[in-house]
Write a structure and sequence with these properties.
Helix content is about 35%, strand content about 20%. The protein has a 5-stranded mixed β-sheet. It has helices spanning about 35-55, 95-105, 110-125, 185, 190-195, 215-225, 225-250, 265-280, 305-310; strands spanning about 1-10, 10-20, 20-30, 60-70, 70-75, 80, 105-110, 130-135, 140-145, 150, 255-260, 290. The chain is of the alpha/beta class and about 300 residues long. Helix 7 (about 225-250) crosses helix 8 (about 265-280). Bound molecules: zinc ion. Zinc ion binds near residues 165, 182, 184 and 185.
Length: about 300
């Protein structure tokens, strides 16, 4: 099966033509913050026309369009429910009609983190497992769940996809979702500059001369044996591991897949989360396996074929 795949994030949109578990061709466009999705759709259509010409794969050879959106979506109606300050016009758009008019293809809309888990299940680190949670560490933190091979939805499509918003700290930081002390508020790229600058003796760290701090800078400083950077990373690891235990207790997985750019340093992350989870989670049936994701930013694109086959 061939398909058109769209991965729409907060600051990028990637368009790809995929065939089974391979990306045949893809192109990413930079998106200005909080852009209008309506204004972006013609650019997406043009990109697919270019990819179609370049690969000599006409749209009629494709089974459909898989659209991964960075927000809550109603998969039955094919509409966006809530966008958390990105693409505010998305809930008003009829994306299925857009796909019919642009490509004469059906469209399946899905939350991007759910699509990434489908991709890892189909072609990546989660092959062979049917009970999985995935945590993705990016600007925010995604957490999705699959139980007995099925993605979890719930009445309002929120079940299993708000793992980054499990509260783990009373009197913690205010989260972008409105809650206090979420995993995302206590250890994500968006909260890291604030966490670092308020860390005791932060001025002793080389990071204090770094400008805006992200996990790449933090981990580089850890590898240079910066003591404060190590303390901050240890804090983040503990937040993530605590969130992982909440996911284990909620969804009963046999596998936790960890994704996001920070997993380029999986050697500093996977062993800690694995041992912490297996020391503290209540799993009398055995041990939860913890693995790094394999597909990186391609995961949600490779969720296209499984989502269109459903
Ligand atoms: Zn939150």
């Amino acid at each position: 099966m061939k398909a058109l795949a769209i991965d729409l994030g907060g600051s990028h949109v990637t368009c790809a033509i995929v065939e089974e578990d391979k990306i045949v061709a893809s192109e990413s466009l930079h998106v200005e913050k909080a852009a209008s999705l309506k204004d972006l759709l013609p650019n997406i259509s043009e990109t697919f026309i270019k990819l179609s010409n370049h690969t000599s794969i006409p749209f009629k050879e494709c089974a459909g369009v898989a659209f991964g959106f960075c927000g809550l979506v109603d998969v039955r109606q094919g509409t966006v429910i809530s966008t958390n300050a990105k693409y505010a016009d998305a809930p008003t758009l009829d994306l299925e009609s857009w796909a019919t008019e642009s490509f004469s293809l059906p469209l399946k809309l899905e939350n991007d983190a759910r699509l990434a888990l489908l991709g890892e299940h189909y072609a990546g680190a989660a092959r062979g497992f049917d009970d999985i949670v995935m945590m993705t560490f990016g600007t925010g933190i995604g957490g999705v769940a699959m139980i007995e091979g099925k993605l979890l939805y719930g009445k309002h499509y929120q079940a299993g996809c708000l793992g980054g918003h499990f509260p783990i700290k009373l009197n913690g930081r205010r989260c972008s979702c409105g809650n206090i002390g979420c995993v995302e508020a206590e250890a994500s790229t968006s909260s890291l500059p604030d966490i670092a600058s308020s860390w005791p003796n932060f001025q002793e760290s080389s990071l204090s001369r770094e400008g805006k701090i992200d996990f790449a800078k933090l981990i580089a400083a850890v590898r240079e044996e910066d003591k404060i950077a190590r303390e901050i990373l240890d804090h983040c690891l503990l937040v993530w591991a605590t969130g992982a235990i909440a996911l284990v207790h909620a969804y009963d997985p046999e596998l936790i897949v960890l994704g996001g750019g920070v997993m380029q340093s999986a050697d500093l992350i996977v062993p800690f989360i694995s041992s912490y989870v297996n020391e503290h989670a209540w799993t009398p049936w055995g041990k939860v396996e913890v693995r790094a994701a394999e597909l990186g930013t391609n995961a949600s694109l490779l969720g296209a074929v499984p989502v269109l086959k459903r």
